[in-house]
Amino acid sequence: EVQLVESGGDLVQPGGSLRLSCAASGFTFTTSYMTWVRQAPGKGLEWVANINPDGSETNYVDSVKGRFTISRDNTKNSLNLQMSSLRVEDTAVYYCSGGHGWESDYWGQGTLVTVSS
Amino acid sequence: EIVLTQSPATLSLSPGERATLSCRASQSVSGNYLAWYQQKPGQAPRLLIDDASRRATGIPDRFSGSGSGTDFTLTISRLEPEDFVVYYCQQCGTSPLTFGGGTKVEIK
Question: What is the average pLDDT value for chain A, to the nearest integer?
Answer without folding.
Answer: 97
